[in-house]
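ugh ok fine here u go
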Amino acid sequence: MKNIFRICITFLFLSLISNAFACNLPASVCTSNLDGSFALIEGGRPATVVIDAGADSAVQRVAESFTLDLKRLTGKRSKLLSSPKKIKQPVVLIGVLGESKLIDGLVKEGVVDATGLSGQWEAYKISVVDNPWPKVERALVIVGSNRRGAIYGTYELSEQLGVSPWYWFADVPVQRLENVFVTAGIQRDQPKVKYRGIFINDEDPAFSGWAKNSFGGVNADMYAHVFELILRLKGNYLWPAMWGKSFHLDDPRNTLLADEMGIVMGASHHEPMTRAQSEWHAFPDDPTTGGDWNYTTNAKNLRSFWRGGIERMMSKGNGDAFDSLLTVGMRGDGDEPMSDGTAINLLEKIVADQRDIIEEVTGKPASETPQVWALYKEVQDYYDQGMDVPDDITLLFADDNWGNVRRLPTKELDRSGGYGVYYHFDYVGVPRSYKWQNTVQIAKVWQQMSLSYERGARGIWVVNVGDIKPLEYPLDFFMEMAWNPEKMTSEALARYPQQWAAQTFGVELAPAVAELISRYSQYAARRKPELIDESTFPIGDVTNQVLKGGEFGQYVYQWRQLVTFMEEVKPRISKEQQSAFFQYIEYPVLALSNLYELYYATAWNRRLASHHDARANHFLTIVEDSFKRDRELTQKYHTINGGKWNGMMNQVHMNYVHWNEPTQQTMPSVTRVAGGRNDIPVVFVEEEDESHTVSIEASNFDRRSAGASVAWVAIPDLGQTKASMVAYPQGKPATKISDNVRLEYDISVSESTDLKVSLKLSPSLDTTGGDGVRVGVSLDQGPVKTLVMNLQPTGGGVSSEEQRDWFDAVSNNYHLLETVFLDVKSGRRTLKIWRLDDNVVLQKIRVTEY
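structure:
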């Protein structure tokens, strides 16, 4: 409890400073009525909202949404009008520059300053203006450079008011407000990454089952909530659910609704030309679309199929297209690689033919229709081998499906289409599918995406979010960072957990909740739960009276401590916050700690039973109770908030025997030992480290030296330690020893001996296409040894043996590099770690005398 009190006092002080600072910012929400402020809510009554008659559907929808937000805040719904005539009270005006007669009139009269908006991508201005119309003393004007700009400006205001983007998707409550003002002046913003979106994927059985239970299917009624979430997160782009589904065919309202709300529709990396993969198999008797998914043998039918997709895109009417970002290229059917030996010239022909179809159907040059080509898995090889891709197509690099970006731009840096990144929070594939819980550390996301941005991947950021839930926290971070990666500095990253927690649970609870979500994320990221079983971590020795816990026991103890901390915080959660707290914190902490308890008890049951030790029965009971507890937790999730999330936690997550999920949830097999005593106390003690090994947290350096505009910095909650060291800023070229970018650690050697130095690194890949990432190690004034981490993910013809290190690294979430220094003299020595290549994340150092 002392820890909770300390962090609460600290954050309360910081929040007071933050609130005062917000009141000094132009056009920002403030609870004080300062000179020139606009009264958005006064005496519990919200201001009137005005839009043009005939405004774009997306503007109409966001204005309607904003009035509902004001009702959530006040209990009273704001009026929504299409004319300021006869209005005498303050109004909020929402519109698009060049499309709103009301706004354009105020701009012409010099009342509204729209400088810097025209022609900009999704920019907005929020401004407080005086005397916009007769009898209207003051107005709050939200003007967008286009319709999404107007949407983002409006939802920015909603978020400042305390309406979380997750008010519906995570039941985050909205606090009632009596008086709220917007300070005088102008606030302007726009995104740094052009397309920012999500991919709903691997959605069976959880997301699909929930949608069927709640909406009758994955239909427009459901997608309305997804679209709103994306827009509130300041995103604009969606790859829809795809397995056995067709966004455009399953519910014809889907296409219209996406366009009406302002969402740019795309499709996954193997669904070109707006066509869902399931559509190819939907009409087996149609001679124009059937046959093999093979361009060498069935090009005519494929072209016909793709033409239908572009014709559908153009069916909006009046020669207009539904807002789309077209995926081009081709992979094998079912998201598989194409046949071995696929030639580059075949892929070039496929893209060329697709662009011919685009031109023929749209009646415009292909370059005027936005397109993306995803360099996913083996497709990246075609890029590496020099495949010629039209300059206007955005090249979308991918990670290794485990959060490690594989490649970043090294050539054609000025291509007009630019580059992007496809990232994963969820995955089905080797070495193990992971779909159940949030196992993402936002610091890892920051490190990889900051690197990507600095290296020029700024056109598209899209993340595979599986079922959306329970990935709310990292998704929130990803989208905020995508809006402005330059603003998400290492310092901003460190502040993010408390800022997020304050928005979700209030200032008072923010420090404790931030601590919970950060510790949970670190423990969960240690190893995906699907990769854990009774043999994953070592347990200790068996004696007559004492059981030594081993590494497994240490992890279980950490989870128990986290559960205790969570239970200390829970009584302070208000009734209104309980549903959100359960979804964000309580359920994942209890579910994963319970999983560790289950497998830890299984390990001891089997160990003791193999020695006919009746204490095995004690652990058998724990296994049975834990298995039952898992089912009870799932049922509780499905019944909270009146069963709103029924089905969302139906993902099988126990007893994997190969890469993909089992068909059903089963309890691990355990053994009951007959006879003998089973009442002997079970006592655990920590094992003593009797080796001559010293472990050093990488952030506990004694000295550091910077050079070439790069320095090692500590990034909290990155990796499996309290902080990891990253060379910052990222994206810089390789450095030489003479640049002196190094860390120094003082160590003591007891006697003359050989020293083994092990560096524990987070997995990362050589994004330049080279032979790995390098880091230097030296002792005292001796020469620098170069160590190389060269992990080879799946795809691109990599053999199983070559993939072994990558399998182990992503499974364990770390990789060791080791070297030996011979005949080291006793006494005080200095170990030095040198930055050579970018994208090295140093967690821990281990020094062993032997």
